[in-house]
Design goal:
Number of strands: 0
CATH superfamily: Ferritin, core subunit, four-helix bundle
Radius of gyration: 18 Å
Largest sheet: none
Helix content: 55-70%
Shape: globular
């Protein structure tokens, strides 16, 4: 009898990795044709495609861990919001370019640190996917951190807008590095990292970039949580309604 998500912590952990990439990819895809300049339109689309490819790799592994009861496409298109395990930060609407960049920067900084730690995972498949993904994520981080500095140290208007985004999205970042039962079990089995180390390094890296960008690090310590357990904001429901429409309207259709 296959293990449930409540007992198969490895599957739960892999789904979190997959859903983070998948949901952020969908959000970035919304910028296609709407970027502030042509080069950025292409850059965000390419990052979205990178994340979509990473999600595919993680979901293929999740399918194997589950005994191939569901295909990667079934994971992506046939789960309701409560079945997704992405962090709340990644489902937040784009709003404007500053919000998109800050959301990306917060995640890229964490994602790069996480994948680096996963290179030492006792799970060979996790190590392989992490090594392949890390090459792309390092570029993503250079891109987002560069834009944080450019907007923060730019005009009064760009500084104001990106500072607002930094402050508003800060309350969603704690979930990235706050461990729950799954994270603690995965760490104890040397499959995943100690998130307390990630937290320290993430705060240092974010502080350094914001300081260079003449921006302020938020002082609030209150954080939103729930995404990793399937408790989401209403934003995810709207996102999934668009992402899953064709599969829901025409089940198992092929082109």
């Amino acid at each position: 009898m296959p293990l449930t998500l409540q007992t198969n912590h490895r599957l739960e952990f892999v789904l979190r990795l997959a859903d983070n990439c998948l949901i952020l990819s969908q959000r970035l895809g919304e910028w296609c044709g709407h970027g502030p300049e042509l080069e950025e339109d292409m850059a965000l689309t390419n990052i979205a495609l990178d994340l979509n490819g990473q999600a595919q790799n993680w979901l293929e592994y999740a399918s194997e861990l589950e005994g191939e009861q569901r295909t990667p496409d079934m994971f992506a298109f046939l789960r309701d919001a409560a079945g997704f395990r992405n962090c709340l930060l990644l489902e937040q609407p784009n709003r404007d370019y500053a919000y998109t960049i800050v959301r990306q920067f917060y995640f890229d900084t964490w994602h790069s640190l996480l994948l680096t730690e996963l290179l030492d995972s006792t799970d060979e498949r996790i190590r392989a996917i992490s090594e392949k993904s890390l090459k792309e994520v390092r570029y993503h981080l250079r891109h987002s951190s560069g834009w944080v500095i450019r907007l923060g140290d730019g005009t009064d208007e760009s500084n104001r807008r990106i500072q607002n985004a930094i402050d508003d999205l800060w309350g969603y970042t704690g979930e990235l590095y706050t461990p729950d039962t799954v994270d603690k079990t995965i760490c104890a089995e040397s499959i995943g990292p100690d998130l307390s180390t990630i937290r320290t390094n993430w705060l240092t890296a974010v502080h350094d970039v914001l300081t260079e960008a003449t921006l302020q690090v938020p002082e609030s310590s209150w954080m939103q949580t729930g995404g990793k357990q399937g408790i989401h904001t209403e934003a995810l429901g709207y996102l999934l309604a668009e992402m899953q429409f064709l599969q829901r309207a025409y089940p198992h259709a092929q082109w």
